[in-house]
Amino acid sequence: MTTATAERRSMLIDGQWTTAADGRTLDVINPATEGVIGQVAYGGREETRRALEAAQRALPTWSRQQTTWDRAKILKRTAELMRERCDAIARTITLEQGKPLAESRGEVLHSADTFEWFAEEGKRAYGQVIPNSLPGKRHMTLKHPVGVVAAISPWNFPITLQARKLAPALAAGCTIVSRPASQTPLCLIQLFECLIDAGLPSGVANLVIGSANEMADEFLSNPICRKISFTGSTEVGKQLMRGAADQMKRLSLELGGHAPFIVFPDADPAVVAKAAVTGKFRNNGQVCVAPTRFFVHQDIRDDFVSAAVQFTRELKLGNGLDAGTEIGPMFEEKALKQTSTLIDDAVQRGAQLLTGGKRSERFDRGYFFEPTVLTGIAPETRLMTEEPFAPVMPVLDFGRLDEVISAANNTRYGLAAYVFTNDLTVMWQLAERLEAGIIGINDPVPATPQAPFGGMKESGLGRELSHEGLEAYLETKAVSIRLRDS
Ligand code: NAP
Predict the structure, then answer these.
(1) Do residues 261 and 430 make contact, with C-beta atoms less than 8 angstroms apart?
(2) For 102-199, where are the E strands, in sequence order?
(3) Residue 116 falls in the annotated catalytic set
(4) Which domains does the chain carry?
(5) Selection from 387, 42, 368 nearest residue 180 by Cα
(6) Which residue's CA is minimally distant from atom 11 of ligand 1?
(7) Any residues with CB less than 8 A from the CB of 441 and at least 6 apart, and which?
(8) How is the beta sheet containing 128-130 ordered, strand by strand?
């Protein structure tokens, strides 16, 4: 097995690091400096077909000859290697994605935990023995790997979002073709090096980088690919769902969100404002589960807003590699324009800008935007109706429980929701009535490998992580046995 060197960053197909058939490459840009930090091979349909064929060849051995215990050893070793190489992988994430080094380290360690957890959970892919209704019959279920899987992920959590697909798919006995976002492939190459060094056989996991449309066409039209697991925008998720219909391909879809963050009057406004600012501006708000609509009870609204503005102004903006940086650059230049457009729209409709609101003037280069807090938001502003994916905190107020539940649910999305209260009755009401797949109660960071992660409504289909995340890569077979008369 060859190694992907810094000079020749490549795709991994059938255990070989390979360049694109037509020699195309792609520059990878550092959003903090706008400089080129590396080049990768940029493939298309042909490389995707070859990767699918390699995964198909590897499937019988990986799914049948290797037991769940054999597979677990490789996944656990992968987790150990990720932890050992955490600093190097985290540095790459920061260089190509922009988030502060501490957040990148957290991403690598969370992803290592995901590998370790699925290594164990794969051993619990139990079938059932089902009581019979006729004396001579017996019934049971067996779990069967879905087969060859395609995994497409975005740039905002380049390691985490592939780990949530690779680990359960491999644990279930599937083989896989991973396709990272074009702009953040380098850290995934390092993750694949961990898989190889942990002993993963050739062809079991393949890495292709290149044209999204071409690769999606191949995944959709090639019958070898039995399932597509996609994380990204709701719009692309819908396209894939339409395209998957012809061959009835299995789909897991982790899509956009527009999370309410609801603060009740019994909560401490300064303490919750700190959690709100941390949760909102993590990764510059470019997080699917980021809180995006802040509903604060009118009795504590003024205290919450003044604390939130103060904490926001204190955030240290800078290159993610520099010590002390709390907020890195946004991911790409067009995100700066989109963010300004959303803020302008809100201000034109009467919102008050309390801090931030523009590209930072402190930097000559890099996509830095000042963290922003707004109040006086009209319900029809684009910030309320579109997923913002930006460092903008719009604060609204409310008076009654029913009113805030109805406002929180008034969106086509249903991924995450956050509630801050010490009142058990209010907590239960919200947990039961909010339309969101993930609900954090006094908890701004609810994701963990052992709990399901995914959305309701247009935020997606299926769940990642937890036992449900393993089931997503398994088919259930019902086996009925007629016994001989004795
Ligand atoms: P995106 O445009 O949908 O891209 C996501 C991935 O799909 C990228 O790898 C992209 O490739 C690829 N892609 C683009 N067009 C495609 C097509 N026609 N067919 C197949 N793949 C295609 O999403 P994004 O704007 O980069 O990412 C942000 C979105 O992801 C937000 O909506 C966010 O909420 C969502 N997200 C959801 C979760 C979750 O777990 N629910 C987690 C993180 C992010 P290129 O890089 O080459 O464009």
Answers:
(1) no
(2) 128-130, 137-145, 148-152, 175-179
(3) no
(4) 5-255+459-478 (3.40.605.10), 259-449 (3.40.309.10)
(5) 42
(6) 181
(7) 418, 419, 420, 421, 427, 430, 431
(8) 128-130, 137-145, 474-482
Cβ atoms < 10 Å from Cβ of 245: 10
120 catalytic, yes or no?
Answer: no
- Positions in the chain whose pLDDT score sits under 50: 1-7
Per-residue pLDDT reduced to its tens digit, 305-331:
999 999 999 999 999 999 999 999 999
In angstroms, the CA 330 to CA 327 distance is 9
* 154 CA from centroid of ligand 1 (Å): 4
Looking at the DSSP bridge assignments, the partners of residue 11 are: 18
Supply the pLDDT for residue 486: 75
Structure tokens at 307: 């604390």
pLDDT on residue 7: 41
Determine the pLDDT at residue 363.
97
* Placement of tokens 């059932």 in the chain: 128
Residue nearest to atom 10 of ligand 1 (CA): 181
Report pLDDT for 469: 98
Structure confidence at residue 9 (pLDDT): 72
40, 28 in Cβ contact below 8 A?
yes
Query: Would you say 178 and 190 are in contact if contact means Cβ atoms under 8 Å apart?
Result: no
Residue 324: what residue type?
G
pLDDT confidence of residue 235: 98
Residue 10 tokens read as 């490549």
Q: pTM score > 0.70 for this model?
A: yes
Q: Residue 417 forms beta bridges with which residues?
A: 439
User: How many whole angstroms from 295 Cα to the centroid of ligand 1?
Assistant: 28
